[in-house]
Specification:
- By secondary structure, this protein is an alpha/beta fold.
- It has one domain: 2-Layer Sandwich (Transcription Regulator spoIIAA).
- It has a 5-stranded mixed beta sheet with strand order 1-2-3-4-5.
- The longest helix is centred in the middle third of the chain and has 13 residues.
- The two termini are 20 Å apart.
């Protein structure tokens, strides 16, 4: 499991590899806090994510809350079938923009 981030203009790209779980919390929180006030959008790339657990879902809800509840500021991209099932089961498709 690993999480890396990069900023391109005012968009923060977060790349998840392996399991997206509590082990990613420190890296995720750092990317969030460093860019929260200067970024217009967060794009979470899940192309290399194999699994997402409830702690990762909680991190996404925290991100949404810190962005003032604006779903348009968070986008999931390159979501594979397994992770998409998890997101849909949690009804995240109603809270966020998700692109497979």
């Amino acid at each position: 499991m690993s999480l890396t981030s990069r900023v391109n203009e005012d968009v923060v790209y977060i790349y998840v590899e392996g399991n997206f779980d509590i082990g990613c919390y420190d890296q995720f929180n750092k990317a969030l806090n460093e860019n929260l006030n200067t970024s217009s959008k967060f794009v979470i790339d899940l192309s290399k994510a194999s699994y997402m657990d409830s702690s990762a879902l909680g991190m996404m809800l925290l991100l949404r809350e810190k962005l003032g509840g604006q779903s348009s500021k968070v986008e999931f991209t390159n979501v594979n079938d397994e992770v998409m099932r998890i997101l849909c089961d949690a009804k995240f498709d109603q809270l966020f923009t998700i692109n497979s």
